[in-house]
Amino acid sequence: MSSAPAPTRPDAHPSIAPPRRIGVNIRGALGLVGTLVKWLALAPLLPLALALGYGESPWPFVAAAAGTAALGIALERIGGDRSEVVGFREGFLVVSLTWVLAAAVGTIPYLLSGNPELERPIDAFFESMSGFTTTGSSILTDVEALNRSMAMWRQFTQWIGGMGIIVLALAVLPRLRIGGRQLMESELPGPEIDDLGTRIRQTAQRLWSLYVALTVMLVVILATLGWTGVDDQLSLYEAVAHAFSTMPTGGFSTQPHSIADFAPATQWVLIAFMILAGVNFALLYRTFVRRRVRSALRDEELRLYAGLLVLGSGLLILQLLERELTGSDAAFRNGIFQAVSILTTTGFATVDFTGWTTLALMTIVALMFVGGSAGSTGGSIKVVRHLLLGRVLRRDLRTTVHPELVAPIRLNRIAVDERTLRAAVAFVLLYVGAFVVGAGIIAFDTALQGPDLRPITVMAVAATTLGNVGPAFGHAGPLASFSEFSDISTGAMIALMWLGRLEIIPVVLLFTRQYWKP
Fold it and tell me: Which end of the chain has fewer CB atoms at under 10 Å, N or C?
């Protein structure tokens, strides 16, 4: 067997040039996006089946499935040879484009529904983006005008987006020839993911399996409440529809008053499952499947998450009791429900909290900036980043007094890499920056074109769309809609929802010169 020749320095011979760095492989990225979009054409089949069962028009969903498949196949052909290198940098482009196109094709059923509130493309795009990003903000003033199949499509878009389109693709499609971990980390909420298997595909499969199992469990419980007469409002259809928006912490409802008309027992069940949906799904898997209960009890993020839920609930309950806005039983339930709903970024409502006290409204806005745990379906900043940021600040104060002190930051007794800490700080700064810019655009536009908003309402609108929470105050309150905003404000809110779901950085990178340089 002959030995390999010794490596030669590129500069040893003038005829041999050093390897040239290749820029972003746009064609390869588009091919992969096409594959993901093509498989998304299966999503309209559920509402299509319902339309046929209820005797409603199936053509909006037929058109959506055909159009989505055609777009995916076209992008695959543009991408050419899938064996081309699609690596780390292309992953950001793949994730960002996939979510935009998912929302775009999701508008097709709305545009063909015949609903006058969804006949304008920007309004349909807002509703679709709100669904896939699990925001729950709605342009609709009369949700009951939707037929059953269209209303279920609206709910189902949230369920698809909850655990992630690309995580689903990694779970069910053959191994993708890209950096699966990088794609998953770009899409899943939080600074990092935990391995649940030897391969990233196995991790994706286990996350989605748990997600499906919890959804089925919630459907069974809600349907049982309806069948036993505890809540006459809960048919099997309503149970499925609200499970589809609870587990992804979405917030869409088929009812005009959100959750207000359901029985207290139903509201307590939803509280429990919203809390579960806001917990790291990897931690839930270890706790319930592998039965490692101690790891959950020792998890520092989970402890802070629980503490913030108690604190937020307590503040709202005290405000409701002090001002006698509701009875004591209702104050207790409504305070807990709204604190859980807003902190987990679900966005359900049991009452129109727009008329609550200023302190209560400030508490709700503050909760919009918390979010669920990393690896949950919740949006916003995430509890773990608040935890890490607090420890970074505490360490900086200590090292100011003791400059020679070496103090690594630990999370669950494990030292956190400095690069992870810098990324968490950078994300929070970018998040605040996006919030300020978004609020500024909305404030300027509404001052010129209306509606007339109070400063706290402007902040709530920007915070709720960026954090994928859902309701705000006033014209955009929990029992109102976002229909009165101009196209400029609507476009800004669409961008905020997109940025918030992808956690800003993958999108921002696409607008930097360094990303596109070879």
Answer: N
| 36: phi then psi, degrees, rounded to nearest 5 | -65, -45
Cβ–Cβ under 8 Å, residues 95 and 50: no
How many other C-beta atoms can be found within 10 angstroms of the C-beta atom of residue 429? 11
250 SS3 class = coil
Dihedral angle over CA of 347, 352, 354, 359, nearest 10: -80
Question: Which DSSP helix (H) or strand (E) runs through 100?
Answer: helix 88-111
Give the Cβ contact number of residue 78 at 10 Å: 13
Residues 353, 357, 359, 361: what is their CA dihedral angle, to the nearest 10 degrees? Answer: 20
pTM of the shown model = 0.91
Helices (H), 188-235: 200-227
Classify residue 320 as exposed, middle or buried by CB count within 10 Å of its CB (0-12, 13-18, 19+): buried
In which residue are the tokens 């304008």 written?
120
Residues with Cβ within 8 Å of 1's Cβ and at least 6 positions away in sequence, in order, are none
* Torsional sign, CA 105, 111, 112, 113: positive
Domains in the chain: boundaries: 414-516
Q: Whole-angstrom Cα distance, residue 330 to residue 352?
A: 13
Q: What is the rounded CA–CA span in Å between residue 258 and residue 270?
A: 12
Instruction: Profile the chain (518 residues) by mean pLDDT over runs of 10 residues.
Output: 41 43 78 90 96 96 97 89 64 90 97 95 97 96 96 97 76 52 55 57 84 97 96 95 96 95 96 96 88 86 96 94 76 95 96 91 96 91 94 90 84 88 91 97 94 92 96 92 95 97 89 85
